[in-house]
Amino acid sequence: MGGLETAVEELKGKYPRVEILPLQVDVRNTSQVQEAFEKIVKKFGRLDIAVNNAGIEGPHVDTHTVDEKDWANLVEINLNGVWRCQREELRIMLNQEDQGLRQGRGRIVNVASTWGICAPPRELPHTAYTAAKHGVVGLTKADAVAYGRNKIRLNAVCPGFVRSPREFKIEN
Hints:
InterPro entries: NAD(P)-bd_dom_sf, SDR_fam
Radius of gyration: 18 Å
Keywords: Oxidoreductase
Family: Belongs to the short-chain dehydrogenases/reductases (SDR) family.
GO molecular function: oxidoreductase activity
Shape: globular
Oligomer: single chain
Pfam families: adh_short
Helix content: 40-55%
C-alpha cells in the first residue's frame, strides 16, 4: 500500500464521517491539474480551502554549477506547479457564492519555506530551491492583493526545518 492509500485509511479510521477524495496529480501536467479540480467540484460542489504543498528538494549546489535541467525541474514543480493549482482554485472560487464575512468565496494556503523569505546559510547552497520558494511567496502576495476584493483569501506559510530522517542525513 502506498503513502496516499495509507493516509486515506488512517483518516477513514479516525474520521469515518469525513468524505475523502484521494487524487495523485503531477503538478507539471496542466491537464492532470485541471482534471483533478473538476473531480473535486463534481464530488463536493465547491472548493472552500486549498493547500498547495508541491515541492522537491533539488540540488544543493551554487548557481554557477547547477545543471539547467535540475533548475528547470525544480522551478517547474515548486513554483509553476503551485501556480497551476492556484490558477484552477481561483477560477473555481471566483464562480462560487460568497459564504459571508469569515468564509468568503474561499481560502488558499501556499506552503513555501524559510528559504522563501531569506537565504540559506553558505554551508547549504540551495539557489534553485530558494528562488522557487521566493516565487511562491511573491505569487501569494500578489494574488492576495488582486483577489482579496473578490473575497478570496491567500496566505503563505514558510516552515523551517522539520526533524525527519532526511534532515538527519543532511545534519550528519
